[in-house]
């Protein structure tokens, strides 16, 4: 679908064309150039549990680091 240029001044129409807003289309199921290097990997971090009850020194004391 093209953007209609009726009712716009020629400067605004030229600016839209230069900036790439001349056409609006979907990129669903299409390969976008330059998008092949932008990705992320989601790695699940293993949870480290720390004992805070039934430990030497009692219950109401700060947790040891690590």
TrEMBL record:
Tell me the Pfam families matching this sequence.
SNRNP27
> Known InterPro entries for this protein?
SNRNP27
Domain (U4/U6.U5 small nuclear ribonucleoprotein 27kDa protein): give its ranges.
12-65
| Subcellular location per the Swiss-Prot or TrEMBL entry | Nucleus
Instruction: Give the main location.
Output: nucleus
The GO cellular component terms are:
precatalytic spliceosome
Q: Where is the signal peptide?
A: none
Please give a single GO biological process term from the UniProt record: mRNA processing
* Entry keywords, A to Z: mRNA processing, mRNA splicing, Nucleus
Which family does the UniProt entry place this protein in?
Belongs to the SNUT3 family.
How does it associate, per the subunit comment?
A: Part of a tri-snRNP complex.
What this protein is reported to do is described as: May play a role in mRNA splicing.
Q: What is this protein's record name?
A: U4/U6.U5 small nuclear ribonucleoprotein 27kDa protein domain-containing protein
Organism of this sequence: Lineolata rhizophorae
From the broadest rank down, the organism's phylogenetic lineage runs:
Eukaryota, Fungi, Dikarya, Ascomycota, Pezizomycotina
């Amino acid at each position: 679908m093209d953007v209609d240029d009726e009712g716009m001044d020629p400067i605004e129409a030229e600016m839209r064309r230069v900036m790439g807003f001349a056409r609006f289309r979907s990129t669903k199921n299409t390969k976008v150039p330059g998008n092949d290097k932008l990705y992320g990997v989601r790695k699940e971090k293993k949870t480290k549990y720390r004992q805070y009850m039934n430990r030497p020194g009692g219950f109401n004391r700060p947790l040891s680091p690590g």
